Amino acid sequence: MHDMALAELPERRELAKSGSGEIVIKIPSPYAAEFGRLRQLISSKSLQEIIERYPVRESGVLNVLAHGLRFQSRADYEAAALNCIATSEDLRKRVRSKLGNLSVQLMG
Predict the structure, then answer these.
(1) What phi and psi, each to the nearest 5 degrees, are found at residue 28?
(2) N or C: where does the chain have the smaller number of CB atoms within 10 Å of the terminal CB?
(3) pLDDT per residue as tens digits for the range 33-73
(4) Phi/psi of residue 44, nearest 5 degrees
(5) Residue 27 near residue 8, CB atoms below 8 Å
(6) What is the pTM of this model?
């Protein structure tokens, strides 16, 4: 969307000519197409693709999750999660198995 909006911005000369003091940009909403894509991914149970396409760290999901679990903030939730991972060998192994080769690359 960012690129679409930038492509619609008028050139400097056009801005000087118009003199209206207002810039109007119209771009089509991606909502319908994205919602359709998400529904298709859900129906095909493509969890990996959903995670790749819609990262939760860039949304409000983690804040809602943290408050739903009765944490004061997302930071408190993340600290508790890290503490659980640090104190549970089984959980640590499961997290590392999900990270695959990434954990080896990060930890040397």
Answers:
(1) -70, 145
(2) C
(3) 999 999 999 999 998 898 889 888 878 889 999 999 999 99
(4) -90, 5
(5) yes
(6) 0.51
Residue with the two structure tokens 């939730």: 77
Q: Where are the domains of the chain?
A: 63-108
| Torsion angle, alpha carbons of 11, 14, 18, 19, to 10 | 60
CB contact at 8 A, 49 and 38: no
- Whose tokens are 């790749």? That residue is 52
What is the rounded CA–CA span in Å between residue 107 and residue 82?
Answer: 16
Burial 19-41 (b: 16+ CB within 10 A, else e): eeeeeeeeeeeeeeeeeeeeeeb
Looking at residue 55, its pLDDT comes to: 83
Per-residue pLDDT at 108: 61
